[in-house]
Amino acid sequence: MGFFNKLKEGAGKAADLAKETVEVTRLNTQISAKKREIEKSHNRIGELIFSAFQQNDLSVAEGQVTTVCQEIVTLQHDILLLELKIKEVRNEKSCVCGKTITFNAKFCPSCGHQFVTDSE
């Protein structure tokens, strides 16, 4: 009977891992799409500036460039939120030194930073 329990437990872990992988892949796909949008926005800024340059009046593009830049900032924020969601799904967190560690870690193995929990 112990064999079947272990088999059942292993299958449950595999299913959880598969779910995690699917979710992380979905989030990474969204990140990639937003990065492509940022690249298109960078190109749009270049087109606007060059068009204004050809008209000998760079101020013509200022309003449109500002709008596109604000869109880029929003997309970058969205990417940051998606990256945080990936860490949450993987049960990870970031240290001040930039390393990614397990969520339950009390100290960073790289720099020694101590994490304070809400219960402390």
Automatic annotation (TrEMBL):
Name of the molecule in the record: Zinc ribbon domain-containing protein
